[in-house]
Amino acid sequence: MKKLALLFLIFVYYNGQAQGMHALFNGKNLQNWHRFLKTNGTDDPDKVFSVEKGLLHISGKEFGYLCTKDEFANFHLVVEFKWGTKKYPPRDADTIKRDNGILYFVQLTKDKIWPKSIECQIQEGDVGDFWMVDSVTIVVNGIRTAPKDYATAKKKTDAENPYGQWNRVEVIANNGRITHIVNGKVVNEATDPSISKGRIIIQSEGAEIYYRKIEIETLK
User: Tens-of-pLDDT digits for all 220 residues of the chain?
Assistant: First the structure.
């Protein structure tokens, strides 16, 4: 029944029937976001985060994040992203993948790199991987992950578009079940996270990236 409910949720969204979707990024400014950079705190003199022609531009020049002011428990999050061309130290070598990420259930008691959370990985070749930060655990294939500073659960299949194209990533968190969807294809699933409510973060992590959509629907 849970599988059927998930498939129905995906179906109604892709047919434009989802109710309650609203934009976290309005295409105009960053007024609904809290900003933090590793070296500059809440100041952003180099415009790591900016809005350009309706797109969220993240230069990647400094590690940091945009964080929602609200917390979310059960939700359907949708983002659409495309990589830029620039890369910055310590990840500027040609052999290092472009990296970014969406953190959710973020426990933001103090700004730091990175707060306790679960990540939907946005990294070349790895979009949809789970990363668990600061001893968070989930259950994958019936086995609970070990509590570590950083732990990962790799995606089951690949659905990324080639470099230069837009990608659509969805995170559905619904009553203890988490699903990562890339370009309409389920790539990773987990259950029973050790945290189940918190803020949402969009990272800056050494690579230029653009977002044209960040929206969310709260689920009951």
Answer: 545 555 554 544 443 344 589 999 999 999 989 999 999 999 999 999 999 999 999 999 999 999 999 999 999 999 999 999 999 999 999 999 999 999 999 999 999 999 999 999 999 999 999 999 999 999 999 999 999 999 999 999 999 999 999 999 999 999 999 999 999 999 999 999 999 999 999 999 999 999 999 999 999 8
In sequence order, the 6+-apart residues with CB closer than 8 A to the CB of 115 are 103, 106, 107, 108, 109, 133, 134, 201
User: Which runs of E-coded beta strand occur in 88-134?
Assistant: 99-107, 116-123, 130-133
Cα diameter, the chain = 51
